[in-house]
Design goal:
The complex is a heterotrimer of chains A (269), B (264) and C (165). Chain A contains 10 helices and 10 strands. Chain A is α/β, with parallel strands linked by helices and 269 residues long. In chain A, 36% of the residues lie in helices and 24% in strands. Chain A has a single domain, classed as Rossmann fold. Chain B is mostly helical. Chain B has a domain of 181 residues. Chain B has 10 helices and no strands. In chain B, helix 3 packs across helix 7, helix 5 crosses helix 8 and helix 5 runs antiparallel to helix 10. The longest helix of chain B has 40 residues. Chain B is globular. Chain C is an alpha+beta fold and 165 residues long. Chain C folds into 2 domains: 34 residues; 99 residues. A 6-stranded mixed sheet of chain C has the order 1-4-3-2-6-5, with no helix packed on it. In chain C, strand 2 and strand 3 form a beta hairpin. Classes of the chains: A alpha/beta (269), B mainly alpha (264), C alpha+beta (165). The interface between B and C is medium-sized, with 35 and 33 residues.
């Protein structure tokens, strides 16, 4: 069974200081596929990534990656697992004190004893894959947002991971950069034979490139399906989300006291 | 009334518990840094880089301050000593105050505000921009790779900076006392050499500066690593580093002085 | 920042720091003069050593010839036993008198050697026969007051033996 599924999240709950973030979430990520986890901001999507990468422990349930239960691994085992994962952070999280080249070379140098020429070749290959071979001497502060994201992607795939996680890869990018990143996600997934998880709220971008979508709301999976199923879905939440309607199951108003009461209340409270 | 007293006591208790908890947390962090120092020392290039940032970049402020503190000591010391007709002891006064106290303490305070704050801000910003998490995700231990080299860079730099401070201070005192005012050159040095003991004064001064360096580096890396990952959190952590390490230097100085120069 | 540049600067920095330490040790401190390596040890018994401390200089005619190596108390004879390390280049007659003196009015205390005329010289492990103790300020003052009461005049200005560092 785990031969087909790279990641299995089984009935996982997670609470942060007694505030529940996720309750009873189950999902599967088959090998070789690109999966999106969608939902409004603050619904617990990023927490799911953290659970899969072992940064936090679930309060209930298990997360299996490549057959191993993540929270039962010791530090050594977890680090061994993470070497086979790549993660693209929301704003790239490039090391600001290193050049683009050193950023991409970082993992290769930390985990292998390869000679300098070989490291150079590997880094250039990865940078070439994201189309930024010419920028290897720049510092991260000299890059545009889209370029920084691509460099971070090159860094994430430096060790040819089996699982690539994207945390809001489209946030803050212009449409062209978005398209570039989207294409890269698909191309790299195929080239590396990896599986990808995209956590995002950019519905239209994501729907064009993913194989399967999970919708998360208030810590639960509320809907799932392929891109076409999702577009055609009559589920009120999915419908609202995909078609970006201002009001629906996700209310426009944050829960508050009745407006009339609020207006009549004494001003200093 | 009774309630107010209870609430006051509870507040004190809460505060004390928080402080102790934080001290314990910082101590565990310190132990972790020491345990993960292997990488920093084996791959000494990482540490050399941090010596550059903590030490070399502090050179100018330390040198200038040392020189001026020595010059002021020369002026003030001469003014006081000549009232008792013992201006020949100017060298003793300048050298002993610098080597025993001012060198380690003032260099430590400057080091805390110049290098300590920079270390905290850097680590804090790395945390705020997810660089620390990214490193963990790449299966690289940030304590070994980021924190320990900065800690050791600080620990190694500090005694050297304090020695430079003292040496330049003595030179400044000599400049003012001998060259400017005209105290006898021979008695300036001779009295100094007779009074300053290598083991008792100079080695103790070096020990002091090493202890201060450890304290400042520890506080700086801890505050940076523990900073709330926002702009405000990092700025507050930086302030805390300067305040806490300055207080720590003064407190440690008192304790060390009491042990070192007692009776003998 | 280039790696070679960093290495160079750190090299300069460490060299400067070590040079400063060396200057402190040799030029400011007494490391250069303190290592009188070849010494012999003699004992001196004093009724009172005042504020004498270990490592205080031993001088003869104002020249440093040795250091105080240790101070202890003899519980049988009730006096202080001071051991002096003296440079082997200097030999002193056996009737030399060590006395505890103070440099300046409030300076540090040292041992001054008043050379005698005995043809035999002190050897390692010998003990001085006659010594002169430290002058204690309180005693001087009370003596002065007694003398004053007896309409006497104080003979000479006091050299103090007060606690100094």
């Amino acid at each position: 069974m785990s031969a087909e599924q790279l990641v299995e999240v089984d009935d996982v709950s997670f609470a942060y200081e007694r505030r529940p973030i996720l309750t009873g979430v189950s999902l599967k990520i088959p090998r070789g596929k690109v999966i999106a986890i969608m939902g409004a901001s603050g619904c617990g999507k990023t927490t799911l990534l953290r659970l899969i990468s072992g940064q936090v422990r679930p309060t209930r349930g298990t997360v299996r990656v490549d057959g191993q239960v993540v929270h039962e691994l010791d530090r050594e085992g977890l680090y061994r697992l993470r070497r086979r994962m790549g993660m693209l952070f929301q704003f790239g999280a490039l090391f600001t004190d290193m050049s683009v080249f050193d950023n991409v070379a970082f993992q290769i140098r930390e985990h292998t004893d390869l000679p300098a020429e070989l490291v150079r070749d590997l880094v250039m290959m990865k940078l070439h894959a994201v189309g930024l071979r010419g920028s290897h001497a720049f510092m991260p502060s000299e890059l545009s947002g889209g370029m920084a994201r691509r460099v971070a992607l090159a860094r994430a795939i430096a060790l040819d991971p089996m699982l690539i996680m994207y945390d809001e890869p489209f946030t803050g990018l212009d449409p062209i950069s978005m398209g570039v990143i989207g294409q890269l996600v698909r191309a790299l997934n195929a080239a590396l034979g990896a599986s990808s998880i995209i956590v995002t709220h950019d519905v239209q971008e994501a729907l064009q490139l993913v194989d399967y979508v999970y919708f998360v709301s208030e810590g639960r999976i509320v809907a799932e399906g392929t891109a076409d199923e999702v577009r055609a879905s009559r589920h009120p939440y999915v419908h609202q989300f995909v078609w970006a309607e201002p009001d629906g199951p996700v209310p426009f108003d944050y829960p508050a006291a009745a407006f009339r009461d609020e207006l009549l209340r004494a001003p200093h409270v | 009334m009774f309630d107010a007293v209870l609430r006051g006591l509870r507040l004190i208790g809460r505060n004390v518990i928080d402080r102790i908890w934080r001290l314990g947390y910082a101590s565990r962090f310190f132990a972790a840094v020491l345990m993960h120092s292997g990488t920093a020392l084996r791959r000494y290039n990482l540490t050399i880089r941090e010596i550059y940032f903590a030490g070399v970049l502090s050179l100018i402020i330390i040198s200038v301050s040392g020189l001026f503190v020595g010059m002021v000591l020369g002026l003030q010391g001469y003014d006081t000593l000549q009232r008792y007709g013992s201006s020949d002891s100017l060298g003793v006064l300048v050298a002993l105050s610098l080597v025993r106290e001012l060198g380690p303490v003032v260099a430590g305070l400057l080091f805390a505000s110049r290098a300590g704050s920079a270390i905290t801000a850097e680590i804090g910003l790395m945390k705020a921009t997810e660089q620390i998490t990214a490193m963990e995700m790449m299966a690289v231990d940030p304590i070994a790779r980021v924190v320990a080299p900065r800690f050791w860079g600080g620990v190694i730099s500090m005694p050297l900076l304090a020695a430079l401070f003292s040496a330049l201070g003595v030179f400044g005192g000599w400049l003012v006392g001998v060259v400017l005012i005209g105290v006898d050159d021979g008695s300036f040095w001779a009295q100094m050499q007779a009074a300053v003991d290598f083991r008792q004064d100079i080695v103790n001064g070096v020990i002091k500066s090493a202890v201060f360096g450890m304290a400042v580096a520890w506080i700086a890396v801890f505050e940076g690593y523990d900073a709330i990952p926002t702009a405000e959190g990092v700025s507050r952590a930086t302030t805390r580093t300067v305040v806490t390490s300055s207080l720590a230097i003064l407190a440690l100085d008192f304790v060390l002085t009491a042990f070192m120069f007692r009776g003998i | 920042m280039n790696r070679a540049t960093i290495d160079l600067w750190v090299g300069i920095f460490v060299a400067l720091g070590l040079a400063a330490l060396l200057v402190l040790a040799l030029k400011v401190g007494n490391l250069a003069s303190a290592n009188i390596s070849d010494t012999y040890t003699v004992q001196a018994n004093f009724a009172n050593i005042g504020g004498l401390k270990v490592r205080a200089p031993v001088k003869s005619s104002g020249v440093v010839v040795g250091r105080v190596a240790g101070i202890s108390f003899d519980a049988k004879e009730y006096h202080a036993v001071v051991s002096l390390q003296i440079d082997r280049r200097y030999e002193f007659p056996r009737d030399t008198i060590p006395s505890i003196l103070t440099s300046g009015l409030l300076g540090e205390q040292y041992i001054g050697l008043e050379v005698g005329g005995d043809p035999k010289v002190l050897k390692d492990g010998d003990t001085f026969k006659i010594t002169q103790s430290a002058v204690v300020l309180e005693k001087l003052i009370s003596q002065f007051l007694f003398d004053k009461a007896a309409e006497g005049e104080p003979k000479k200005p006091a050299a103090a033996g007060a606690e100094t560092k």
